[in-house]
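Handout, section 3.2

Students often ask what a structure token actually looks like in practice. Rather than define it abstractly, here is a full record for Ankyrin repeat protein. The first block is the sequence as you would receive it.
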Amino acid sequence: ALHSAARFGWVGMVKLLVDRGADVDGRIANLATPLHMAAIYGWVDVIRVLLDHGADVLALKDMPDSTNQGTAVQLAAWYGHREVVKVLLEAGS
């Protein structure tokens, strides 16, 4: 549920789920965490909530163009989300 909320930018649902103990670093089949999902779609407010709840900015996931893996900041840059890149870099990415 947290991955879907992060993917669609549902910040209120993200807050509710993490406040109730959802794993901010939980992974789905392609190794994506909720932070990766928010980075791919450019949801900066979701990124902030996840970071405030201890999301790992250095977690790796499969990159869209190859068999390489990348972090949330690399994905945000790949998709052109400058504000997300800035927030993730400030968080130590």
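Discussion prompt for tutorial groups: The mean pLDDT is 91. How would you have guessed this from the sequence alone?
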